[in-house]
Amino acid sequence: MPAYRRILLKLSGEALMGDDNFGINRATIVRIVEEVADITRLGVQVAVVIGGGNIFRGVAGGSVGMDRATADYMGMLATVMNSLALADAMEKAGITARVMSAIAIEQVVEPYVRPKALQYLEEGKVVVFAAGTGNPFFTTDTAAALRGAEIGAEIVLKATKVDGVYTADPKLHADATRYTTISFDEAMSRQLQVMDATAFALCRDQNLPVKVFSIFKPGALRRVVLGEDEGTLVHV
């Protein structure tokens, strides 16, 4: 039996690159979709927020002289492109998906409307939230926390390249150990970079736990949803 009825899956744009330097690696997106399909068959309601770093990184654009707000809007549009690619791959895998954008682009995707999103989830559709929060200066981590709270998700699953939160960078420190669980306050006091500060504070205030795990580890998403010892649980 799944440990969660409704989840918010946060994917980074970089997760779609695979071994490429940029863009969307088709084999990688297909494999991720297979993992998502696996948990939908368990009856889990799935919403997804995806970043745009594989196409455009707002902060980097701002750092070379571009206006930060303009760069962030470009980053939001990159998330729409990723969301469309993800939804297309889901449809081909037999999953009904709906992309809902925080920025109005009605010829391409439907606008985000909370009651409609809840209806889709209850109908067993995967909802992909695009364009972040619709506002500059907020990351897609914050969008994931916000949408997760809005739809009543029981947990935010932050899919990364690392299989959890460690005491130190495991690539640099061979003796680094993975936390099985850790509180929001402890993670903050130890300055562990789980999410950006705004997203982290929102999850803590809304008592919305966060599970950090590796999307590149086969079967990890299923194990997380089944409540097994996978990744790191951050809780109040």
Explain what you see.
- The chain is α/β, with parallel strands linked by helices.
- It has helices at residues 26-40, 58-63, 68-92, 114-122, 140-150, 184-189, 197-205, 220-225; strands at 6-11, 45-50, 97-101, 110-111, 126-130, 155-160, 181-183, 210-214, 232-235.
- The protein has a 9-stranded mixed beta sheet, sandwiched between helices.
- α1 links the parallel β1 (6-11) and β2 (45-50).
- The chain is globular.
- The mean pLDDT is 94.
Distance between the termini: 24 Å
If helices are DSSP runs of H or I spanning 4 or more residues, what is the number of helices? 8
The share of residues in extended strands comes to 15-25%
How would you name the CATH homologous superfamily? Acetylglutamate kinase-like
Measured as a percent range, the helix fraction is: 25-40%
Indicate the CATH topology: Carbamate kinase
